[in-house]
Amino acid sequence: MIDRRLKNRLIYLLDNYPAVGLLGPRQVGKTTLSLEIGAQRPSLYLDLESQSDRARLADPEQYFADHEDELVILDEVHRMPGLFQSLRGVIDRGRRRGKKTNRFLLLGSAAIDLLKQSGETLAGRISYLELGPFDALEVPETELDTLWVRGGFPSSFLAANDSLSLKWREDFIRTYLERDISQFGPRIPAETLRRFWTMLAHNQTELLNAANIARGLGVDGKTVASYLDLLVDLLLVRRLPAWHRNAGKRLVKSPKVYVRDSGIAHALLGLRNKDDLLGHPVVGQTWESFVIETLIAAAPEGTEASFYRTSTGAEIDLVLKLPNRRLWAIEIKRSSAPKVEKGFHVASADLKPHKRFVVYAGTERFSLGDGIEAIGLAALAAELQSVT
């Protein structure tokens, strides 16, 4: 077992809200974490993909009343969107009787917006938490390259060898394409969506060019946008927005798009192991995506992430606006001997960030001059996590 970093946060939310929504892609460990927490308090687990468990909820209000003193864990809650209206009434009645917290833990494989569309909103009654794959703060620093190559899905990262890890990821992709995605959106041909997903893997950290992708798929721009929205909602792809606050600067407006789990991206590209990856043109891009996803996951709640690029070439790979309103500018290099490009200095002069870092593949921390520090990924993730 690898302890999940968000466990204590989830416990805190359960102890302070009547309902908590734990979101994340399938197979990321939501059920395992929920059952671990449920074992420490009176609880009841229902898998709403199971017909027998759904049958128990023929009269949900009576069922929940019978289990009022237990934490009810509802897995794959999107399968019964009509439950949300019942949950609202059950929570409100419980509040009047003093049952204000620790009532429901809802597990979902879709983003917050998609989950809310499943039924009546629970605004003011629910708090959401996203559980991603393993990150750099959950595995030994010596295993970071394995995490990068295999990704952070538990069954992939912990596989006995690279071949079994890749096989798991290929099966995961196939299952999503052929079975799971149709539950959340309109019917999309699996092969078309695979090609789209693979295109995104090939073009990670590049500006989104929907027109080029549309031509490659033989569809229109609106269709590409709908495909992208679906993968973003399923927490499989991230759309990183461009910084847009500087008046007087000609800023790039298109977002960057990348596959959130590096191991899934490598499986889509047919990269079997680290040697395959290091010999592939996408190596720098997939490392950058891996670093960005890691740092966003480690950043404190309320952090705004973006990238900065002007039409003249000034660029910062990742800009984090922390809840204390301080800006961190982060450049990402795969090299073990990182150098700072002129564009980073120019962009820093535009934004005037409070801290500037270059994340590289080593572990030593040292100055690059002009207030810029070279730092390893795990060290910077830990520093972000400690920000208050």
Radius of gyration: 22 Å
What's the number of domains?
2
Classify the helix fraction into a percent range. Answer: 40-55%
Low-confidence region ranges: none
User: How much β-strand is present in the residues?
Assistant: 15-25%
CATH architecture of the largest domain: Orthogonal Bundle
Structural class: alpha/beta
β-strand number:
13
User: End-to-end span in angstroms?
Assistant: 29 Å
- Overall pLDDT metric: 91
**Number of helices, counting only DSSP H or I runs of 4 residues or more:** 17
Order of helices and strands: HEHEHHEHEHEHHHHHHEEHHHEEEHEEEH
CATH superfamily of the largest domain: Winged helix-like DNA-binding domain superfamily/Winged helix DNA-binding domain
Characterize the overall form.
globular
CATH fold-level assignment of the largest domain: Arc Repressor Mutant, subunit A
CATH class of the largest domain: Mainly Alpha
